[in-house]
Amino acid sequence: MLQLSRKLLCIILCLSIGACAPKGRYYQHQDSAPKIVPEYVTTKDAIPRYEPYAPANLRPYNVRGVNYQPLLSGLGYTDTGQASWYGQKFHGHKTSNGEIYDMYQMSAAHKTLPLPSYARITNLDNGKQVVVRVNDRGPFHFNRIVDLSYAAALKLDILKTGVGNVKLDVIHVSPEGKITIGKQTPIKNLNHQKQSRYIQVVALKNKQSIEHLAKKISAQYQLPYRILYTGSIYKLQLGPLGEHINLPKILEKLKRKEFPSAYPIDVN
């Protein structure tokens, strides 16, 4: 009888714990900082390098009824606003880029920057700076422009306040290794072109082959593309290309490699 009572008590305790445990993907209901900060917390900035954008993360998406359209390139991107941070609740879970979030590394989340990207974050209240690798989506609050990892927030000294006033400058690295920080060309020059510029790369009959080729070339040159179907032919075109894109240089590379018939196109 005593053994039976003990078993019943264990079952009741297990059910009670299960009922109180958080449900869903994350163990914690509320995010938090680690109670004990390990010695290996990263204090070094992320090192920018060329990485092709993940095509899957260039697709539009919807969160809480709001549509978001990721940028095709982070070149020249600069923004100011509030930064928040995320920590223990998300630690060890997948980011939007498919990687594992490590709150002790210099990383960040952004709503529309192509993934992965690199950015320099400046705390406008104290002048401190950090370079992060953007590999996640968020924060989904109208007044916040970036969500920092615990390590990045620690270096910028915004852990206690929870948010901070920051400036974000994308650090863009070209396939050739050229680094551009922040704005290079005025926004108005990019958005008010009389014509849209494209490069006709190749024409094929096989749809799967040209789609595979399109993704490969788009990732290699970090440029958008479109596929036009005319009759029985699929045409692959890189573009539209902004005025900051060196079209002759890209065309020369395409011709020198495996697309000698490539040519420029202007579309009104």
TrEMBL record:
CDD domains cross-referenced by the UniProt entry: DPBB_RlpA-like (cd22268)
Topology of the protein relative to the lipid bilayer: Lipid-anchor
UniProt KW Cell membrane keyword: yes
Cited PROSITE patterns: PROKAR_LIPOPROTEIN, SPOR
Entries under Pfam families matching the protein: DPBB_1 (PF03330), SPOR (PF05036)
Domain SPOR: 191-267
Coarse class of the protein's main subcellular location: membrane
Keywords: Cell membrane, Cell wall biogenesis/degradation, Lipoprotein, Lyase, Membrane, Palmitate, Signal
EC number in record: 4.2.2.-
Signal peptide annotation: 1-21
Subcellular location: Cell membrane
Annotated family: Belongs to the RlpA family.
Protein purpose: Lytic transglycosylase with a strong preference for naked glycan strands that lack stem peptides.
Protein's name according to its UniProt entry: Endolytic peptidoglycan transglycosylase RlpA
Organism for this UniProt entry: Paraglaciecola algarum
Gene expressing this chain: rlpA
